[in-house]
Amino acid sequence: MTTKTSQKYLFSTRLDIPEASRIKLIELLNKTLASTLDLQTQIKQAHWNVKGWDFYQLHLMFDEIAEEVEGYVDTIAERITTLGGYAMGTARTAARDSSIPEYPFEAVSGSDHLHALADRLAAYARMVRAAIEQANDLGDLDTADLFTEVSRGIDKRLWFVEAHLQGN
Q1: What is the Cα–Cα distance from 83 to 112, expressed in whole angstroms?
Q2: DSSP per residue, 106-122
Q3: What angle, rounded to 10 degrees, do the helices at 19-49 and 110-137 form?
Q4: Which fold has domain 2-166?
Q5: What is the chain's percent helix, strand, coil content, to nearest 5?
Q6: Residue 2: its pLDDT value, please?
Q7: I want to staple 98 with a disulfide (CB 3.0 to 4.6 A). Which of 7, 38, 121, 162 is the partner?
Q8: CA 155 to chain centre
Q9: Any idea where the domains of the chain sit in the sequence?
Q10: SS3 of 98, please?
């Protein structure tokens, strides 16, 4: 059986998380999914368009970060469906619902892309840390742990990006 709530489907499950909490968790996860998809595509934007003397090193690093973020996309989407929700993971949904600022298309140099990605990674990290608290408040320690894993990985990637900027 499914019920439709706020244009999202809720499938029955034997999980012992109350339905009202699952609905809020699914909405939180779908919002995070949109921002995570957006972040991944913005990192690929940097990967494809970086120019300059540090091109190769940054091209590889950006691709590595994008692959890691793609893993978070899958993990978040699967948690949504585990909770009985419907993962809203299209490009159009991501564009509509992401909290990440648009990527600056004028970015060309390695420094331009590093600054742009540092800003976006930091914004995403803030959002994920808030999601940890929200999931915890809703009594879902597994979703809070998922967000903690993502937060730890994003913080590390932010460190990698910022390390390039701090040496100058």
Answers
A1: 40
A2: T--BHHHHHHHHHHHHH
A3: 170
A4: Ferritin (1.20.1260)
A5: 70, 5, 25
A6: 45
A7: 38
A8: 12
A9: 2-166
A10: coil
Distance of alpha carbon 71 from alpha carbon 88, whole angstroms: 16
Residue with tokens 């499914």: 2
Taking only the tens of pLDDT, the chain with its 168 residues reads: 444 444 457 898 999 999 999 999 999 999 999 999 999 999 999 999 999 999 999 999 999 999 999 999 999 999 999 999 999 999 999 999 999 999 999 999 999 999 999 999 999 999 999 999 999 999 999 999 999 999 999 999 999 999 999 976
The residue with tokens 């976006």 is 120
3-state secondary structure of 10: strand
- What the block records as the tokens of 25 is 């968790």
Number of Cβ within 10 Å of residue 133's Cβ equals 11
Quick one: three-class SS letters along 29-89? HHHHHHHHHHHHHHHHHHHHHCECCCHHHHHHHHHHHHHHHHHHHHHHHHHHHHCCCCCCC
Amino acid at 30: N
Strand partners, 53: none
